[in-house]
Amino acid sequence: MKLGVMQPYFFPYFQQFRMIAQCDAWIAFDTVKYSRQAWISRNRIINREKGWTWLSVPVTKGATAGSISEARLAKGNWRKQVMDRLRVYEHEAPQYEEIRGIVAEGIATEAASIGELNSSCIRLFCRYLGIETAFHDLSKMGLPLPHKAARGEWPLHICKAVGAQSYINAAGGRHLYDPAKFNAAGVSLEFYEPIDLKYETGSFRFEPDLSIIDTLMWLPKQHLQALIRK
Question: CB-hemisphere CA count at 13 Å for 184?
């Protein structure tokens, strides 16, 4: 079994979905501490004046004291604010109506925490793209894991707990991992290499690595499915 482990980001970019598709199982690492500066409660979409702007979800005060799975969503009209932000695509993006509908479905969930919301939305977009990887939330798995571990050692502990023979991580995290430790545990260590991805964005300036929302607004599902298989 090839395993991927990553924090559940808010509508992550396309490359993460392509990496998920290369795994047999994917675990949302939602037991780590929530950070407002990470990609957990925000991501980027296109903006005419600034190139890009934030699309975000508010969490309650004090959320940084707990884990991602414990960070509660704030009450308020944030769902409408998210949908209003997407109107920037309305007159030019060819997939606007379809993708707007999927986003609306994703954020309509009754999730109580940002971790639960993000996992639900990632699953939704995986289904839309035809990605069949098994998806799990670490907080719900009850695995026998240590209470503390170095940042680069958590995936190895998780691999051992679920019996994974292979682990894949984003190439940017290569410096965190010791291949010798993985080899000693009988787990092969791989790193995902992103593909070049640039696409037409109408009268907007193209911005790389925006949320999957942006990519799907401009590119048809079939095009991305072909890139996933590439």
Answer: 7
